[in-house]
Amino acid sequence: xxxxxxxxxxxxxxxxxxxxxxxxxxxxxxxxxxxxxxxxxxxxxxxxxxxxxxxxxxxxxxxxxxxxxxxxxxxxxxxxxxxxxxxxxxxxxxxxxxxxxxxxxxxxxxxxxxxxxxxxxxxxxxxxxxxxxxxxxxxxxxxxxxxxxxxxxxxxxxxxxxxxxxxxxxxxxxxxxxxxxxxxxxxxxxxxxxxxxxxxxxxxxxxxxxxxxxxxxxxxxxxxxxxxxxxxxxxxxxxxxxxxxxxxxxxxxxxxxxxxxxxxxxxxxxxxxxxxxxxxxxxxxxxxxxxxxxxxxxxxxxxxxxxxxxxxxxxxxxxxxxxxxxxxxxxxxxxxxxxx
Length: 340
Ligand code: ATP
Ligand code: MG
Ligand code: FE
Known about the structure:
By secondary structure, this protein is α/β, with parallel strands linked by helices. The protein has helices at about 35, 45-65, 85-100, 110-115, 160-170, 180-185, 210-225, 230-255, 275-285, 295-300, 300-315, and strands at about 1-5, 10-20, 25-30, 75-80, 105-110, 130-135, 140-145, 150-155, 260-265, 290. Helix 5 (about 160-170) runs parallel beside helix 7, helix 7 (about 210-225) runs antiparallel to helix 8 (about 230-255) and helix 8 runs parallel beside helix 9 (about 275-285). The longest helix has 26 residues, at about 230-255. GO terms for molecular function: iron ion binding; tRNA N(6)-L-threonylcarbamoyladenine synthase activity.
């Protein structure tokens, strides 16, 4: 089966053709970062307009690179949510038009299910498994008891990890998106400024990063007020160490408590070298199998949407053509057993 998948939830316009839910025939990603960078973040109206400009070209390119024709497609998958509503709409309208014109099924797909199932494109997922989702808008521990069954066992109560990275980077006057810059600064640091860790209640798998962000801002302000020079690298390293300590500790505890066979690291922040290294060594030490998609499949792309949509194609769980963009689409409700 061939799925044409479309992703436009934020600032990447992407289309991909996937065979059998596993094989990437094409995965075209057009990033808008250069347009948003001067605003220090994603501007929703500009994002929608850029998606409109590029979506048709990107879809054509994906089909061309896959070496197939539109007639070969079995279904059209598209991100239904979460994301920016105006951005989602562009992908959804394109997907509906194609599904209607080709008379093939439409599969509205959950963006975070996509980040999780990016792993299936390169690895073999085994259940039950635990996914640590770390992205620009999400920080969650998701238990998958079986294929396509999502249960959120922990989530952030305020900022997402990627958001915290971007805000800290902004305070240090680094360009958007700041995650990779903080990562690089931290890697080259000789010292670390000790910062607090938000563990929350002892049995909680929830996260909180806004206190840490405030602590970073306090260090920056105090140093400036005293007229001292700020050791930015040490601050970046202290911030990163705090984030990683909490993420790794909670993820491993969740793996043990729920008897997960694998830990999956997913989302844009999975590109973080410090996090990858720390998780790899802790999982090795504790005999836990760790799956991490390659960098290009961690950040937003349509191939991961195709991989998740394949779960629904296999069971003929399709969306209606009146499907709406849902900026707050719940992950658990997208589970295969919840389909109605
Ligand atoms: P969501 O998936 O929650 O809707 P999103 O799609 O905008 O949000 P992603 O594209 O998955 O998020 O990830 C983008 C985020 O990843 C940004 O916040 C960016 O700073 C962060 N990021 C990317 N690379 C790194 C890195 N090396 N270290 C830390 N953060 C990183
Ligand atoms: Mg993005
Ligand atoms: Fe994402």
